[in-house]
Amino acid sequence: MSQENHVNESIINEEVKEFLEKGKRTDHMKYLPDMEVIQSDVMDKVREAARNYDYSLYTEADVRRALAHDYKTPEDFKALLSPAALPLLEEIAQCAQKETRKHFGNSIYMFTPIYIANYCENYCIYCGFNCHNRIKRAQLTYEEIDKEMAAIAKSGLQEILILTGESRKKSTVEYIGEACKIARKYFRVIGLEVYPMNSDEYAYLHKCGADYVTVFQETYHADKYETLHLAGHKRIYPYRVNAQERALMGGMRGVAFGALLGLDDFRKDAFATGMHAWYLQKKYPQAEISFSCPRLRPIINNDKINPMDVHEAQLLQVVCAYRLFMPFAGITISTRECARVRDNLVKIAATKISAGVSTGIGEHVEELEDKGDAQFEISDGRSVQEVYDSLLGENLQPVMAEYVYV
After folding, report:
1. Which residues span the domain enclosing 121?
2. Structure letter (DSSP) for residue 62
3. How many whole angstroms separate alpha carbon 6 and alpha carbon 342?
4. Is residue 27 helix, strand or coil?
5. pTM of the model
6. Dist CA 37 CA 53 (whole Å)
7. Cβ atoms of residues 319 and 152 within 8 Å
8. What CATH number is given to the structural domain containing 337?
9. What was the pLDDT predicted at 249?
10. Residue 48, domain member (yes or no)
11. Cα dist. 236→21, 31, 174, 192 in Å?
């Protein structure tokens, strides 16, 4: 287990060790009674593909062969993610840029997240919201959500991503639904990054106005996943893997995928993420597919998390591999990355960028400032206008909404 590819094992502190020794953990592969079980073989296909991926077998010739293909196969995707591809990164980036411009032109979509609650029932040892982390918890009222969204809309943004901590008790489906209804007054596109749900609940939220759902699997390695998610609904690995499919079954027009790069072997996690999206795209050809490529960031009360486990060259490699493997997919770069990295990635392969970001609760209206602590430290604090101007300076076209209702 190399430090470059894996989360630092020292973050499993004495409190966590005590928790593990008490044997409180449930079977992470067994569904809980309130969880919908769907008839799908996608998870099994993804896990098998990841298990069989040995990136050490690929050579420069394999990478060049992949680049020569007009349409990239899963085998090509493996080669593009392998260490053998790093010396060819400049050439790969040029190919990815051409593919991006072919399908998206110079358009870069802009959005911002809004955190409406940070209560969480999960024990995930790398996350600032985890239920054992001593932070200031808060939840916005409907009136406060309205004020926050009105303030955000004044920036000109027309897309918003609604986030909560993963607590069904505090952030009920109905609460999130009301937030979607409020958002519909101000925004054309509404995304959700909340706890995984059953398909009927996704259908309800879609009716309330939600357009797409983002779910980070964090890591696809089931054994590693089990050691990082000690309690709560999030501990149940298969329920989380199948969340995007349930969202599509519930009528969502789009789903986004992501692994938290650095929790485990980032090459295998990136490959599993791509294959997950690829299998669902084949099964649901109408679905709008996108990727997020987050790296670890420091959190409150845990400074042992190392955000540099996956370096910039490897991040670029992953982003370019996604673009070449699934050329029509969107790719989002969050404020976990610094301005320089984000600006470089949107010039090459990314198609969506956040701006004016805060990961705390109630940060867009002065009277609500510092209502609740942040999930993680952001690295790019630029305003909407600053990101907009930066894109124009790179001859890119900022787009405030990718969807128009008629």
Report:
1. 9-31+59-399
2. H
3. 23
4. coil
5. 0.91
6. 28
7. no
8. 3.20.20.70
9. 98
10. no
11. 20, 6, 23, 20
